[in-house]
Amino acid sequence: MTKPARHLQRLLALAWLLAVLLVAGHNAWLWLGQRASPDTDILALLPAASSKDAVRQQAFSHMVDSAQQKLVVLVGDRDWKRAQAGARAYLTVLHAHADLFAPISDDSAQWQSQWLDSLDRSRTLLLGDAQRAQLATVTAQQWSQRALGGLYGAFGGPRLGAWQDDPFGLFGDWVQERARETPVRPRDGMLFVERDGVSYALLLLELKAPAFSMQAQEQVVPLLAQARQAARAQADEVVSGGVVLHAAAASAQAGSESATIGAGSLLGILLLMWLTFRSLKPILYIALSIAVGCLGALSVSMLVFGKIHLLTLVFGASLIGIAQDYGIYFLCARLAAPATQDSATLLRRLLPGLALMLLAALIGYLGMALTPFPGLQQMAVFSALGLVFAWLTVACWFPQLIGPQTLRATPRAQGFGQSIARWPDLLGGFAWHLVLPAAVALIGLSIAGVARLHSSDDIRALQKSPPELLQDQMRISQLLELAAPVQFYLVRGASAEAVLQQEEALREKLQALVQRKLITGVQAVSNWAPSQQRQQDNLTLLRRALLEPQGESPDAVTLIAQAIGESPQWAQALRQRMLDKAQSITPEEFLATPAGAASRHLWLGQVDGQFASIVALRGLTDYRQLGQLAAVAEGMPGVQWVDKVGEISSVLRQYRIYMGWALLCAYAAIFALLALRYRRRAWRALAPPLLASLLTLGLFGWLGQPLQLFHVLAGLLVLGLGVDYGIFLLESSRDQRPHAWLTVGLSAASALLSFGLLALSHSPPLHAFGLTMLCGMLLVWLLAPLFTHPGPVAHATPDAQPDKESA
Amino acid sequence: MNARSLLCSLALLALLPTARAAAPVQQIQATLAKPAVMCGRFDQTKQLTGIKKPLQAYGRFCVLKGRGILWQTLQPFPSTLRITRDAIVQIQDGRVAMKLDAQQEPVVKMINSVLFSLLAGDLSQLDQLFELDGSLRDGHWQVALKARQPALAKAIGDISLAGASYVDKVSMKEASGDRTDISFSAIKTGDGAMTAEEGALFD
Q1: What pTM, to 2 d.p., does this model score?
Q2: Residues 139 to 178 of B: which have CB under 8 A from any A CB?
Q3: E-assigned strands of A295-391?
């Protein structure tokens, strides 16, 4: 090695030191100064724009946002007084922490009179379906009787305001119809629901901090547990639900998993190194490269994405498994190299192989980065960055740190290296009559297994909340007959009026499904603020039925006046009083009132030059019937059925297929890359991962494991890692082979450790990923020496005389 | 979540149990008979703002301890109101004109309990909802009720009761100026108090 080259290497090492210090400083600033914390929102892992339809996106975020910060608690007991006491005990615990929750209780009665006031001036125009039907059929005589009944009755049933404001009880009926949209009622200053003899006090809490912030979760969850306990001391049952609870359970799981998988992986690797080198130095060197890799990945990822997802970190724990390959490769090569060769020269000899390994792994990650899943992009970029940083650390620092005398292999390690000699040369041609049928049978069986594979792309299978949380969630939906947040109709039109008219048409069609008990009801703005057309129609209907004489017979108001001995002027005043309360109401006006507060998430208003709204469904429980709901939207212009769950699942399906092709392309690209160096032997590096993947998939087929996107992604990594082993073995001469085998063994064992631990994850996607890696990597390890056997006669590798080459 | 918006109409009653009854109220309570079944005639006069003539009606009522109330208007036109713990049902022309289910509207239980207490003079029950101001002289008593909760006060206004062994008179004055006076007479108690037809309405 020449002096300038040596000088250059020193310079590079120093430059890298500077870079690493910068990265470390940035990390310290991020985590200690900025107190950055990872993101845990599972939705952030989904495609940002699965469809380019802005209205749809907004509709969904509208529905989700309105649900996300809410926390619903039901305190139940057979004895309402005990349920109330429980609810009060619950609130008492929370009241001390007003900073975490928005104002919780309000005077429901006070509030209610307000919301009625806001609708008062339009009351005559607001008619329910039943009332419209009655106005069309019931005679003026009957209407007057009904009005007189209310007038004379001492306790004539519910009445809102003075009799003159609602003589026919129409507004009262309409309000009652709106009230039937929820089973919740005010009672004794609380919200009340009853089911099967159990009375529940309903508490609605609004979280002030974001539900997905870890800090908020850490504060909120123990507090809620404490409140729950306080309530349970008074009442029998406490049911609580909210996104924050699921998010907290998910982060607790991912957090502890990240710790065990990361720690287990690191411990396993340290042990391996100890058994191999019986020295702390190589462990430190490799840990150094991994640490720099992790810090670099964190630092640059934060710069690129602005935030980092917790699952990225969990996945990053597996990064340790690959980043060490470069260090291991250098260390094992150092063991194999003669003491006379200095480390700088050794590195130059190893560089082509190292570069190939990095490139192949990056190609493997590239496929992931190309998916539209922000989470996967983050994982891919994070992992790729980690590898680049670890690689540069090996390339820049290892030759400076590790001299010819630094390391010595243990007998155990040497023994393992020598064991490669016992691998038969199956492709050498001596036993074709045995190998061929076995290979054909194995591959045939795998193909048969692959043919049995079925796929599952259901997004719901990807998230696993603790069963008790799911149970509570179901109970709440059941008790409160909540509207489904992810399945709804999106109604669009050129104007607000057009949207409302279309909503009315849709609601009419949905009545059939209500009658068949597929859903219990519909939430829509047009329930409250009908279209102008409908409002006019209502007024016409009401005038004709109540206020105008029909031929010979007088109108209902006149009949009332006659019955109580009032003058025609009185009758006219009563008519006028009703007509005065017939001022039209627009959806915007309605939504601005207190009554409209709960419907605001349904009205999207003007988006992209058109108007849009949501018609939500209550009491939807049978998800097999979604097809019928979708069918309702067919043939209705401007009405679209949105099923976010189905949509995301279908996106997952598309990308599973897409990633399958990406995997095949990666094989082709890596093959082209390897062919540049290994020519006709390139296939030998690729055959092990290819065969391992096929066998793994076949195995899953026979085991009945449904195929999902994450299996395919793992396939990409099997390729990326498996190719490394091919490169190790193909790069080595016959003499170096035992050390190359040691490299493969160390790397594969630690990859298995880290990825094998992922198979233990409770998160279904990570489990699928880990299991694929476990089977795939084990097979790659076993298959790699078979395909790279140097053969019975001395067969020089393209790199057999590296010293000459580098000289 | 739509619950908050829809806490409807009927239920203006937000109630909390509070102080104990004042001394005269307890004495009044002692003078009242508490029969299991009590029926009689009611005469009702309603004076409503905006309507010149008082609206007069009469009919029969029955109060059944633990079961409910039957309120049959006979004149000027027949109408029957049956209030039980489970439902409030209005029958006109032999058909159900209105029905409120307690399952759906918990306030039904409330209404039942308040009306029962009013008609039976169960002041200890009323004490939870109203401030009671009573006086008692020669076995005749009078009680003014003022709702403890503003919302309830707004909904039903001031109530006063007068009577001796039974409640004789109920007056309700609403903030709007509407006024209802009901007087009770010909009260019978015991098994024979209720007619067979009335009994049938409860089954």
Answers
A1: 0.69
A2: 149-152, 154, 176, 178
A3: none
